Sequence to fold (219 residues):
Amino acid sequence: MKNYLVVGLGRFGSSIAQTLYEADSEVLAIDTNEDLVQEAINNNIIDNALILDATDEKALKEIGASNFDVAFIGIGSNVQASIMTTLNLKELGVKKIIAKALSKSHGKVLKKIGADEVIYPEEYMGHRIAMLAMEPNMMEHMRFSKDFLLVEFKAPASFLGKNLMELAVRDSYNINIIGIKKSNGELNSSPRATSVIEKGDTLLVITDSKTARELENLK
Fold:
């Protein structure tokens, strides 16, 4: 069984960590923010999380970072931390590094220093929305592994008028919503628990392969 390291417990990183955790994968999540680490544990997002600075190579060595098969870097606005973390993990010999980038220039740097895959959440969402406009019933996805995908689909009628807290999609549907595209083109790349799903919304979610196949049947 592969084991995973998730760096950063913002919405993107938390969604990745929980999806892996619920798929019974071996996963460790780390963040410098004590509140985020505690929140992730309290909310059963993951049961193995540490307060740790991934820009500190010595700290990564101490947790055995080199033994992880895949590392996800979901660090948000701190570009320098994202770059240093990627470099550290590469030098420690992590087999595969998947990193979130905020811009093309950021992504190019990540690639050059060792990221195997670079994810642009907002760009990905915008591109897929355009494709959906041309092919309304199409469901696109980006596969990270055998059982781990980013999927987008039109919000079903049962979701409309409800916020993410009311929907409790993690428990009820085994999905984690990390982006909401409004019908007017507005993109919410960091939806909160109070974000309301409206008619015409397109959702970007992280889930497993089995659930992805079932999303088309949601009414």
The chain has a mean pLDDT of 84.
